[in-house]
Write a structure and sequence with these properties.
mainly beta, 11-stranded antiparallel β-sheet, 3-stranded antiparallel β-sheet, 3 helices, disordered N terminus
Length: about 280
């Protein structure tokens, strides 16, 4: 479930751009009122888990049905719609997030179709969510889903900035990977570079660096973790929103203990397309 929520964390585009001239891009974060953002997100992953240990321990793993290395592939597709209403007297407008269709490579439904999340936002503030509506979800799931989506809005913050072609900005965000009794904290440094633009479209290159901040007791574990990512962002300037977001990420983890060493290689892809319709 945590992997699904992590996927949802990155499933909404949040960059709002406006162009003040043909040469300068003036951007800020936000959503527009009376607008629908229909999006499809496809995420794939390919992982390899390798155990290095004594013959006795490896044989025990084999007898328990664990292959070495263990290979896994998955694909998850989420179709959703983010709809905003009219601006009210206080400057806010209602927002509704609807899950239209969510499936994985096993053809299982991740979040029931028609699940709704309600909240409010303004042109200068990110949405503040207050409730989840679904007949098929229990209260614990609803609470976790609401907290996760709200965390996504509260954690992403980019300063307003005027940019010329060739200029870039850097964003640093945390990522926590939970494990039984412990966690691996990573810091993601993302560089967005404006490579070209027209009156309609702005194109960015993305470069990422993942660095681990280990939360384990160093006396028990020796851990190395790092990774890199690269991708593209395509922005519809008149609509002030991202219409395409593509990212490929490679992560490497190595956990050493007295009895064994565990190596994990993960390659994942993220592809998001957004259709914008004015209500």
């Amino acid at each position: 479930m945590k992997n699904i929520l992590l996927l949802f964390l990155i499933s909404f585009p949040v960059f709002n751009y406006a162009q003040s001239s043909k040469e300068i891009l003036d951007f800020k974060i936000g959503y527009s009122p009376q607008t629908s953002y229909k999006q499809v997100v496809e995420q794939s992953s390919d992982t390899e888990l390798l155990y290095i240990a004594s013959d006795e321990l490896l044989e025990k793993l084999k007898s328990n049905g664990i292959e070495n290395p263990t290979l896994a592939k998955s694909i998850t597709i989420i179709e959703s719609a983010f709809k905003t209403g009219k601006i009210e007297k206080d400057g806010n407008f209602p927002v509704v997030i609807e899950f239209l269709k969510t499936t994985n490579s096993e053809n299982k439904v991740i979040i029931p179709n028609g699940t709704l999340i309600y909240g409010r936002a303004s042109v200068s503030t990110m949405p503040k969510l207050d409730s989840v509506v679904s007949k098929e979800l229990d209260e614990t799931f609803k609470k976790n889903l609401l907290q996760t989506v709200q965390s996504m809005f509260s954690q992403i913050a980019l300063p307003e900035k005027k940019m010329k072609i060739g200029e870039s900005f850097t964003q640093v965000t945390p990522l926590t990977i939970p494990l039984p009794g412990n966690s691996i904290d990573m810091e993601i440094t993302t560089i967005y570079k404006l490579v070209n633009m027209t009156n309609q479209i702005a194109n960015f290159d993305i470069d990422q660096k993942y660095v681990a901040k280990i939360a384990f007791d160093e006396g028990k574990f020796n851990i190395n973790a790092d990774g890199n990512g690269n991708g593209k962002l395509v922005y519809d300037i008149p609509n002030h929103f991202a219409t395409k977001f593509v990212l490929d990420i490679g992560l490497n983890f190595e956990v050493k203990q007295d009895l064994f060493t565990l190596k994990l290689k993960s390659n994942s892809g993220f592809n998001q397309a957004v259709q914008i319709i004015k209500n």
